[in-house]
Amino acid sequence: MAVSLDEQLIQELALRREQRWSLYDHPNLIRAGSVMIFLILWEFYGRRVDPLLLTYPTAVAWAAVQLIWSGELIRQLLVSLGSLAAGFGASLLLGVGLGVAMGRSRLAEAILDPHVNALYATPQVALIPLLMMWFGLGFGVKVVVIFLFVFFPILINTVSGVKNVSASMVEVGRAYLASERQILFKVVFPAAVPFIMAGVRLAVGRGLVGMIVAELFTAITGLGAMLTLYGNLFETARMFVVIIVLGLLGIGLIQATQMLERRMARWKETERAVN
Amino acid sequence: MLEVRHLSKVFFEQNDSRKPGLVALYDICLTVRKKEFVCLLGPSGCGKTTLIRIVAGLLPADRGEVLVNGNPVTSPGRDRCMVFQQFGLLPWRTVLGNVEFGLEIEGVPREERRDISRKYLELVGLNGFEDYYPHQISGGMQQRVGIARALSKKPDILLMDEPFGAVDAQTREQLQEELLKIWAKTDTTVIFVTHSIDESIYLSDRVVVMHSRPGRIKEEVLVDLPRPRWEGDVKADPRFARLRTDIRESLRG
Ligand SMILES: Nc1ncnc2c1ncn2[C@@H]1O[C@H](COP(=O)(O)OP(=O)(O)O)[C@@H](O)[C@H]1O
Ligand SMILES: [Mg+2]
Asked: Can you tell me the distance from the alpha carbon of B67 to that of B80, in angstroms, rounded to the nearest whole number?
């Protein structure tokens, strides 16, 4: 209604939206140009340097074609992604579950608190040699390492999200005769979702780090193992291919999480913008 | 019918056993008939919210009891519904989803509860806003959602804790009138907490004046103004002015 009145008045005033083309309205063009220039400079500089130390974009592109053609890149990528998914999934289940328990029950918190704090305070990389003794060098150890890297941001955010649910919100549930279970699933959990999603966003980056570190240590399969292999062979271009794939993977996963976060926590975001 | 018998409530400091504790309610006795509209009026901190929460079954009493239709209250029940001062809406649910909440908890099938909720949204004048989120609508509209949610459960007793305290004056008058119209169409008993003298007179059959420290009932004032009150200007009636003076006196002394 208000909009159509605005439109009417604008028409009556014979005003038109001014549309001028400006480079500043197209930051993606600027971004693409910036990347192009960087690649060109790298190409020229890279060709003059010892190929053992640095390579150049066309060589990297060629290496990429070879690695994709042989199927090696895709195969190792899938191995890496498989362990990432398994570790992440386990963390999500256990982190959210324990987090809700710790956030809702002071008993559960007191019981679990010391263990969580001790394990969280330890740099998780330090545990890898020990984990390799326990779980070997295969898929299992990678999943465990990723699990450890990812677990704490999810757990800690879930706990604080659940604790942040206001008592008055829970009281609304009680006033409308909700059971403990219904309060958990219909009040506490949805209220905590924005916090949990923020934890998931942090966890994605850490998960990638955990994945690579575990594969560098075990050096048998996955993208990390490819890095070790081609590093030992001084195949710099192939190493770059792996590094770029990891970068793209990071960007893709983080973007996907942000999208998911925006969708699931939309009410929170707009609420903040309004208040 | 609602009966409050010699009700007392004391709040003790959680981690300080030296503090004596605060007597929030002392020996409250109150009887409310079916379909009566009663206002609890008193200054901030006199225990109005505490009393209404005990009646709702959200808070246990320390002494005395509350009876609804002869049965002692120990927990929230389907015969009572609460409308909250800060609306108490769930921000991740749409307007329709919020109205549905009580019915959903009760296990009413989806289609049926949708239909019921739509009906009550229409009753409070919010049709067309089903898919909005609470933060997208005004405070007055949010409280209409709160009222629709409570009414959808068809309670015998509607408990309202300063429901219009957080909306602007104009909206407030409008909501008061609409509440009276809705109430006139139902058999609901209403217990309405407020600290506005005019609001209490305009709405109720009886004003229960409370004092603080300790929270207790000072006096009950019968409001003998004719209904419906939304016709004509009740507030200009000399009886209204006299009631206002009486109640103000009662609040003071
Ligand atoms: N959960 C609580 N714990 C401790 N003190 C409380 C609690 N709830 C209310 N009180 C105290 O009891 C008194 C009455 O509070 P309340 O019923 O909210 O008053 P009103 O609603 O009339 O403003 C106040 O002094 C308040 O500080
Ligand atoms: Mg209050």
From this structure: 12
Q: Which residue's C-alpha comes closest to atom 16 of ligand 1?
A: B47
Is the Cβ pair B135, A267 closer than 8 Å?
yes
pTM of the model: 0.82
Fold classified for A57-267: MetI-like fold (1.10.3720)
Mark which residues 145-174 of A lie under 8 Å from B by CB: 168-169, 171-174
pLDDT digits (tens, 9 = 90+) for A189-235: 999 998 999 899 989 999 999 999 998 888 788 888 898 888 888 88
Strands (E) located in chain B: 2-11, 22-32, 37-41, 63-68, 71-72, 80-83, 157-161, 189-194, 206-211, 216-222
pLDDT tens-digit series, residues B184-219 = 988 899 999 998 999 999 999 999 999 988 888 999
Question: A53 in contact with B at a CB cutoff of 8 Å?
Answer: no
Question: What residue has token string 């009138």?
Answer: B177
CA nearest to A79, candidates A260, A248, A218: A218
| pLDDT tens track for B52-108 | 999 999 999 898 899 998 889 888 988 999 999 999 999 999 999 999 999 999 999
With an 8 Å Cβ cutoff, is B77 touching chain A?
Answer: yes
Note whether B82 contacts A: Cβ–Cβ < 8 A: yes
Q: What are the residue boundaries of the structural domains of chain A, listed by start?
A: 57-267
Q: Which of A171, A182, A270 has its CB closest to that of B135?
A: A270
User: Which residues have a Cβ under 8 Å from the Cβ of B92 and sit 6 or more positions away?
Assistant: A190, A191, A193, A267, A268, B133
Which residue, by CA, sits nearest to atom 7 of ligand 1? B11
List residues bridging with B83 in a β-sheet: B160
Answer for the pair B147, B192: CB distance below 8 angstroms, yes or no: no
Mean pLDDT, residues B215-231 taken together: 88
